[in-house]
Design goal:
alpha/beta, six-stranded parallel sheet, single chain
Amino acid sequence: MSELTATVSETKDGFHVDGYEKISYDFTFLDGVFSVENPQLANCYQRWGRVLAVTDLNVYNIYGEQIERYFEHHGLTLKVHKTKIGEKAKTIPTFLSIVDSMTEFGIYRKEPVLVVGGGLVTDVAGFACAAYRRNTNFIRIPTTVIGLIDASVSIKVAVNYGNYKNRLGAYHAPMHTFLDFTFLRTLPKAQIRNGFAELIKISTCSHLDTFNLLDKYCEVLIDTGFGRTDGASKEVRDAADKINKEGIYEMLKLETPNLHEIGLDRVIAYGHTWSPMHELVPETPLRHGHAISIDMAYSATLANSRKLISDTEHRRILDLFSRAGLSMDHPQFDEEILDKGTAAILKTRDGKLRAAVPSPLGACKFLNDVELKELNAALRCHKKIMKQYPRNGEGIEAYVDASDTGYTDNNSLEARAIETAAKKAGEINANGVIHGGSVPNGYVNGTRGLLEQLANGNGTVDGLSNGVNGFVNGSRA
């Protein structure tokens, strides 16, 4: 949540305004957030007597009955908008489907939307809340390692625009974030591995103790869902809790002085210099953790070439990625992509590279004085080193699949109609295609649907249908 205080004064030629925004939000560690004996979440909604939840379909299929019992037990009426969002469906049509559900629900300005899912769901739903009446509250319950460790820390919310990650977005803080690591009991190992990369990111450049714990417990952390699966030892769970809490705290300490990214030298941008370009290059996108791991591994090689980290530190970093099954290279991570990624990030970072690299392990340095010749030489060296590793440095289950793309649910007639309208106004992405997120439901409360309006030739988008699966519990399924 945020509060704004401002003053206005006269100047010789007009007026001057000074405004200061107070941003305040909380994190609560709570295993079993949807257990009926834990009223903390329900207490946030007692004033309203109802809840609009935007949730990942996979999460709902596993926890839906428990979620419904929880709110019924606490006397709260629940409406659920279920969605499947992957990088290719992290788009404006998906965003609009959530906005449409908020409209049908009749959300009040201060009433918080409940957002339950991984980082992609919280990104898109958070952006919908930021845009809806310019500022609608939300409460966030992340359910993946990336969501719990990384996306939960930031107040950034966004959608992709064509092949550009997070090109459209806002800075919008949730009222509250509940961190429930028991969700990791049912998270596929591929997603555990995916999120493990975020912990390597923060520990390599800012928290050596956490890196040492990741190095010690790497395989068992991934195999046991960070100590949450049956049979996990107390030692592993205690180590996991220490890693998670310290990792989140470290990222918060780094991010909170710079929530709106006014300062562009950001330690947590390690792994995010070239990955925004190459993550979406393959026809089937790389999982985010694998994309940033390629960037981090290459950046470590670049740092080693400059003697910023020792050979031993360099190998420790690469060995940890390899043991975790994370990608360190990809055939399409080549000199052309490196050049394009460099050009793109220079625009984002105000004309400077600001590449975060370890210097030494556990600390960070930002590189600005790197010429393309040096970058390409480091890439050739990196690819040579990768031949010494299993799979030539490629990761395990590195690509998104049908379970986390939303392809099957989002390839709708209405999304194709949006594509047609978009072409009239200019291509939405590089190939003129929107990988959308609406459903062919037609009308919303009597408002003309998109297809009808397009047929009438006015091209407006006032009647988008409900989200991917719409409401449940009494409303349209």
